[in-house]
Specification:
The complex is a heterodimer of chains A (125) and B (290). Chain A has 125 residues and is mainly alpha-helical. Chain A has one domain. Helices cover 79% and strands 0% of the residues of chain A. Chain A is built from 4 helices and no strands. Chain A is elongated. Chain B is built from 11 helices and no strands. In chain B, helix 1 (2-21) runs antiparallel to helix 2 (26-36), helix 1 crosses helix 10 and helix 2 packs antiparallel against helix 3 (41-65). Chain B starts with a helix and ends with a helix. Chains A and B meet through helix 1, helix 3 and helix 4 of A and helix 1, helix 3, helix 4, helix 9 and helix 10 of B.
Chain lengths: 125, 290
């Protein structure tokens, strides 16, 4: 693929990624806004001394029960997941287009993020 | 209730100031939460990282649609900033809080100094006309970069397919090391890292300033994710604190971007230098325990 072809292909990728990033940011913010509204309704102070720990196993139950922490955690997870989804999108696109170097770069970034998860869990343990 | 409103307003102020001055939200949010609300520094850093992701995703999307950012270059450098962020977030849990406060004080002083110099430069003829509306463009506003477009042409270590339509990327290897450092600082202090990313791309790699700022914005989202995950899974992120603050930052950044062209940034910058200098002093006091 010539440099000009790569640039043309990049334009398509950038458009898709732009929509993904904006969509993720808005979705995350909407969930956070609902969570904040529920905090107000439940009289929860944002500067309380204690706060609920993140537990993915209770996330759906918290959402179904309209608990503020459910919406807040869901918002945070979507916000954190948005750049990750972007990198996954890049990996797929570059792989399909045969741009092996950038596909490897995207894969390596996902590897670093995966390592973050592992490191956090190991250190916690 | 009042604390929530103050947080919301504080986040919004950080978003407005950040978008008007091109500063990272972390520079404002971390002091707000630590000095204003007495929260532990690590907790403030975690919240700030979430805010960085918010502003990065929203602004990077807009930059990509406008074809300003160099996605390919951003991906390569993000690998290094993310690696640095992984290290930085792990180190943050073993560094004493007072040492972190000292580092933050130094960062604030550096940003205030750079911004003051940029203000002096801007008061001279031929002002820089670079739109700043995002977290990552720290260096645009603080003046650590140059507004001159990079000179296209050959340089050492050309990076080939990372080049833009009218510039060549060079010195990829040293820039990668700088990005690694930017990631460590971003994760330790809860800032975007644009203060390092933008000058690295602009001055070291020959990327035009506007492209560098936009590309940095794209990178800081991934960088913040690598460290935010660690704070999240280690129980260092307070959702009650993060919710109103991130919401405020989002609203403030949106408003700031819309009014940016109507505001006299010179006055705002001067005010901000004073605020940053005062905040740096308070952080230094916290570091020294006085």
């Amino acid at each position: 693929m010539t440099i000009h072809e790569q640039r043309a292909a990049s334009a398509d990728v950038e458009h898709v990624i732009a929509r993904l990033l904006l969509g993720g940011a808005v979705a995350g913010i909407v969930l956070l806004a609902i969570g904040v509204a529920l905090m107000v309704l439940n009289g929860i102070s944002p500067v309380a001394e204690t706060f609920p720990a993140f537990d993915p196993r209770t996330l759906l139950a918290d959402l179904a029960a309209f608990r503020p922490e459910g919406f807040l955690w869901a918002g945070v997870v979507i916000l954190i997941g948005t750049p990750i989804a972007r990198v996954v999108g890049e990996l797929v696109t570059y792989t399909v287009r045969g741009d092996r170097i950038l596909a490897l770069v995207a894969l390596a970034i996902l590897g670093v993020i995966a390592l973050s998860v592992v490191a956090a869990l190991l250190v916690e343990g | 209730m009042i604390a929530g409103l103050v947080l919301l307003a504080g986040g919004a102020a950080a978003g407005v100031f950040g978008s008007l001055l091109g500063l990272g939200g972390g520079v404002l949010i971390v002091p707000l939460l630590t000095l204003g609300f007495g929260r532990p520094l690590r907790e403030a850093v975690a919240v700030s990282l979430v805010c960085v992701i918010v502003t990065s995703s929203a602004a990077a999307g807009a930059y990509l649609r406008g074809r300003v950012a160099n996605l390919r270059l951003g991906s390569v450098l993000a690998l290094f900033t993310a690696s640095g962020a992984l290290v930085g977030a792990l180190v943050a849990f073993v560094i004493p809080e007072r040492a972190l406060a000292g580092m933050f004080a130094l960062l604030l002083a550096y940003v205030a100094l750079s911004m003051g110099r940029a203000g002096l430069r801007a008061s001279r003829p031929a002002p820089v006309a670079v739109p700043v509306d995002v977290d990552a463009a720290d260096a645009v506003a603080v003046g650590t970069g140059t507004a001159e477009p990079a000179i296209p042409g050959p340089g050492p270590e050309p990076a080939g397919h990372l080049d833009g339509p009218d510039y060549r990327v060079r010195r990829l290897v040293p820039a990668s090391f700088a990005s690694l450092g930017a990631g460590v600082i971003a994760a330790l202090l809860g800032v975007g890292g644009g203060v390092i990313n933008v000058p690295t791309m602009n001055l070291m790699m020959g990327v035009p300033l506007r492209v560098a700022a936009a590309t940095s914005n794209l990178m800081i989202g991934v960088t913040a994710v690598a460290s935010a995950i660690i704070y999240l899974l280690r129980g260092g992120l307070d959702p009650y604190l993060a919710g109103p603050t991130a919401l405020g930052v989002f609203v403030g950044a949106s408003v700031g971007a819309r009014v940016a062209h109507r505001v006299d940034v010179r006055v705002l910058r001067l005010l901000f230098v004073v605020v940053l200098a005062w905040t740096s002093l308070q952080m230094a006091r916290r570091a020294l325990g006085i």
